[in-house]
Each structure stands twice: as structure tokens, then as C-alpha cells.
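User: Show me a protein chain along with its predicted structure.
Assistant: Here is one chain, sequence first, then C-alpha cells.
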Amino acid sequence: MATTGTRKSSAARTPARKHRVPGALAGPPAAIPPLENGARLTATEFLRRFEAMPELKKAELINGIVYMASPVRSNHHGEPDSLLQTWLGNYSISTPGTRASTNATTQLGPDDVPQPDACLRILHEGQATLDVKGYITGPPEFVAEIAASSKSIDAGAKRDSYRRYGVLEYLVWRTEEAALDWWVLEDDDYLPLPADKRGILRSRAFPGLWLKPEALLALDGPAVMKTLQAGLASKAHQKFAATLVGNSG
């Protein structure tokens, strides 16, 4: 029986499917967001963003919060930092088995990635190691910070972070106030390191690391180094250095 009208074929009714190249609709990878002061991040995300910003020289994650560094003044940070690095660097050179670092990103835990101005660590059987990317992982035995505009952070949230993760000694040089704090970890708390009868501060974690606070505060390099040399010549330092050499073997 004949039908009236014209029926469209199924091919005419169904649009032809276009061939899709795998991945063609994925588009470019999403841009990595920049670090922002005050942002709340995990350590993993903080490092991902930090590594994507090579122009950024200093940023830290303290208790899950991002802190971006302010411009550095020579008299309140640059010159004090240079003397502090000289002091620690000379100690490390004279004490094989230790290593001093400057502004090294340090992974303490999932919410804390500080970048201390200076740190000193024991290489063999110490608390900290280097990961595959070269970041310090774990708490260095000694950390120092130059605190000018950052003193509320260095002596507050950052101090709590270092204490919580087991940094044995923490020095804060408050340059605008011409003051120095050196704490030692005892029973999970930071206590002030007492000076000896001559007013010299002697590290407990690093025998021979001696400092006369007034010399450092006055930026008196020769006096700082004279005190350090006396510490390096002490029997306590010689015994400590011999222990490190034995452990490295």
C-alpha cells in the first residue's frame, strides 16, 4: 500500500557525530594561583605556588598562614644579618659535621614552612635532613631570625612553631629595640638561655658557639669573632667536634 508524504530517513534525522581527538577539549592547564599574604594553605600547596613564583625571594607558611616579607633595610636587617651569618658560618667551618644555611626553606610539618634568616644543623644523626628538592625537612637544631618589622611574628607565631616542632635553640635579634632573645627547649617549652659570669651566652646544642650579646647588638664584628674563637678553642668544642667526626664515619 502506498504511503502519502515523504518520510525522512534515519540518517537524515540524526546529526552526524564529529570525531573528537582525545584531550582536545581539555584546554590549557589551569594557572597556578599566586601566593598572597594572609592566605590559608597547606604546606604542599604553599610550596607549589612558591615554586611557580621564581621572582619571589621570601615567603613563609606559619600555622597554615602565608607571610610575605617586607622590603629589607640595611641598618635594621641587612648589616645585622651579614654579621649573624659570619658568626654561624665560621662556627660551621670550624666544626665539620655541622652546616649553616641562609634563608633556606624549611619544611617543619603540614602547616609550617618557614624560611629562617639563619639555621645551624647537625649533618649526621641530626634532627633535619634534605629532601630530593634540597629543602630542609625537619627541625634544625638552631634557628636565628632578624626581627625588625617582623618581630611580632618572629617572637610570636613563629616562635610557637619552632617550639612545637622541636627546634632546640632559637635566637631572635630585635634590631629596632637593640635587644636579643636566645631560648633553649626544655620540657617542651622555651626558656631564656642564661649567660655565664662574663656575660657570654653559650649554646647547649652546639658547644663552642659563644656570643657576647652587647658585641652583636653594637655590630662589633671583631668582638663577636673574638668570643667565638674562644669558644672554638674550648675543651667542650673539641670534644663535640670529635664526636661529630666519629658519627660521620
